[in-house]
Write a structure and sequence with these properties.
This protein is of the alpha/beta class. Helix content is about 50%, strand content about 10%. The strands form three sheets. Strands 4, 5, 6, 7 and 9 form a five-stranded mixed sheet that branches. Strands 1-2 form a two-stranded antiparallel ribbon. It has a two-stranded parallel sheet with strand order 3-8. The longest helix has 18 residues, at about 80-95. It is elongated and about 90 Å long.
Amino acid sequence: MLKFSGSIIWRLGGRTITRTYSSSGAAIHKGNQLDASESSPDKNFKPVVDEDKENSGLVAAVFASLSNPESVVQKPSPKSLKQNRVQQLDSEILKATDVDSLLVVAENSTVSRRHALKMVSVLSEWSSNNKVKISDFEKDPRFLKLCRILARTPTTAQAMTSLTMAEDLSTVLGITGDDEAARLISNLTLPQMIKVMKALHSKSRRSTPLLRALSHNINKTSEIIDLKKSADLLFSMVSLNFPDPVLLDRICNDVIECLPSNNEKPAVVNSIIVSLGLLKYRHEAALTAVSDWIQKNNTICRPGDVASAVITFATLDFVPPQSEQLFETAVSLKEDEMVKASIWLDLTFSLLTLNKAEKHHLVSTLRPEFIDKLLSSGEIPIPSRRKLMVIDAYVGLTYPGSPRLPEDISVGVPLVYTKEKTAYIQSIMDTFKSLVSAETFLKKECNSSMGFLYDGEFAVDSKCHPVPLQKAASHKSVFRIAVLGLDYHDMTRKSVHPLGINQLYSRLLEVKGFKVLQVPYTEYNPKDKLVARVEYIEKKLKQIISSTPAS
């Protein structure tokens, strides 16, 4: 009889039964507990049960025979052995200090895809740090085995045999499924995750699961994202149309921290400010930090760097505090200092948007010589033609007798709404029917003849009573109202604000004698009840009339 000191916890074994369900055609294994009496000859023996183990659903195994002194403890379960082996492989990979000690792990028959990726990732990092050379392992059979594990098809496997570390992680993740790759992202370092993001951009592959996993894991890292990495991430987010707000905020905060120590790299700052504009991300602290950096380092900044900053500020309708020096520099720039004629047009349009353009800027873009420069690169793009039309309209309203845009530039320029914008504007116009019922009082989808549409036009007197449009022009006591609906795409991100171009449209309409009623999506909800929408419009209308005298 065996004697034991202390308490003993007896574990009950499990019997596995295989059942087949017709719905899936797959065998499902289900464990049934064995009664203690089946495995023990001593029916009076009562094993002690650990309640915590029992509550957690884990049941212990018993000895085959308590009365047999040669009884042997039951072998560990296959699942337990597998877990131990996985932990052992993880430990061996972690302890590896050179190529051979790492690749020897690949000789194990139980290497999984996760382990294969982990080993290739380590090799990538060593190669990036010049710890090893690609030639040290690229033809090693053990390395090629890892490639075959990661590959899905023989064709891909053959491609992997010529894997270069310039592609390493992007190739590895490119051949795995998106969901599986997303799960593997947590094994990568920050530089490797940024490589993957850049690879997705270069391949124009917008994998949402992968991008979300990258964003989540990059945000979890405590490592500071330096300016170069920030520029790479932002550019990739632009090209992939992935404006993740959490990641953008993290990047901007790290940019603010890293900028003061950057004394010689204006190109990376230029890339960051351009991307923020394209993403329409109005992070005012980061924009202010960039403005301060440009002014402090004006001796190393190129004219194009200043122009890029002004273009982004205009896009976001933001003038950083204490940025007078930057805008003085911008206003003093010359056309021949720009790399392309189109950049001079963008700069001029941006200065106009921020109300800082001078007459010579505006007129220079309307001259035939400048139009010829634009045409030298091919047909003038539609967005550029719209900018020229806006500049021309402003010049005509502000500087009579100045040179004007050739008429053929504005011919064939489409002015249309997107599908989403059409639905939003339709809701606003339906709301106006409760205020201005007759068609003679309300005009829809109005062509400004200035390069843009405004959504509605009507007139009211000082008591907000509608006035027929035909009579409005001859009555000085009547307010002419222009409606501009602003949906999600008309507003900035982070700090929600109308884009600079919409503010410019409002100014042009005001110059033509209108009072502008902006209806941003942040204040107006098409799904609200009609009564609530009408009350909102009436309130906005009264604010406009009470704040300005009739013309």
